[in-house]
Amino acid sequence: MNHQDKVWQALAPAQSGVSVAATGGRSARQVCPACGSRDLSRIRRRPVDRLFSLFFSVYRYRCCEFRCSWEGNLRRR
Fold first, then answer.
1. Residues spanned by the domain of 38
2. In a domain? residue 44
3. What is the 3-state secondary structure (H, E, C) of 35-74?
4. Degrees (nearest 5) of the Cα angle 68, 22, 59?
5. How many domains does the chain have?
6. Which residues contact 53 (CB under 8 A, 6 or more apart)?
7. How far apart are CA 50 and CA 56, in angstroms?
8. Is residue 19 part of a domain?
9. Residues 6 or more apart in contact with residue 33 via CB below 8 angstroms
10. What tens digit of pLDDT does each residue of 10-68 get?
């Protein structure tokens, strides 16, 4: 999979299989696209991310799993 495919895959909404009713009306947490962990922390966006947000609403995340350390953008839910 090339870099561009990975970017678009990360921007696609994660399918967690958890209904909104099961989470008490809130959406489920984001999932790391690299390792599947739900332990993500939001970090400050770069200027290019802010420009990208004019077209797609995105947040920037970092995976907290030591072995993964993925960092990137995910679409807002």
1. 3-12+30-75
2. yes
3. CCCCCEEEECCCHHHHHHCCCCCEEEEEECCCCCCCEEEE
4. 40
5. 1
6. 45
7. 10
8. no
9. 6, 9, 10, 14, 70, 72, 74
10. 555 444 444 434 433 333 578 899 998 888 899 999 999 999 989 989 999 999 988 99
